[in-house]
Amino acid sequence: QVPLVESGGGLVQAGGSLRLSCAASGSIFRLNSMGWYRQAPGKQRELVATMTSGGVTNYADSVKGRFTISRDNAKNTVYLQMNSLKPEDTAVYYCNLRILMPGPRDYWGQGTQVTVSS
């Protein structure tokens, strides 16, 4: 199992910013995707943003133009810069590592709470 360690969550006012980070301990496969999902109370977990090891990104429509995902492949770390935060962004954010070959196989971080006040 690949441990994923998240940090950067917290409480912020609407319009503010947070930066999440997630580091995968140990070695990971070359072909992979890392990113973030979130889950609000009473709702299903949903994709926020992902980036493959080759640099291909995928964003939820609701965060495009506000959130930016980046990776440091040498450090096995993914970052999520969240700007112009809205109360509807409030959720537990989970880091995800998806190994693409063979698989896919998913690994999850412990989750970090992001709360945006109005």
The share of residues in extended strands comes to over 45%
Share of helix, binned: under 10%
Strand tally is: 11
Largest sheet: 7 strands, mixed
SSE ordering:
EEEEEEEEEEE
- By helix and strand content, what is the structural category? mainly beta
Low-confidence stretches: none
Give average pLDDT, whole number: 94
Shape: globular
Q: Give the termini separation.
A: 39 Å
Q: Work out the radius of gyration.
A: 14 Å
Helix count equals 0
Describe this structure in words.
The protein has 118 residues and is an all-beta fold. Helices cover 0% and strands 54% of the residues. The protein has no helices and 11 strands. The strands form 2 sheets. Strands 2, 4, 5, 6, 9, 10 and 11 form a 7-stranded mixed beta sheet that branches. The chain has a 4-stranded antiparallel beta sheet with strand order 1-3-8-7, with no helix packed on it. β7 and β8 form a beta hairpin. The termini are far apart.
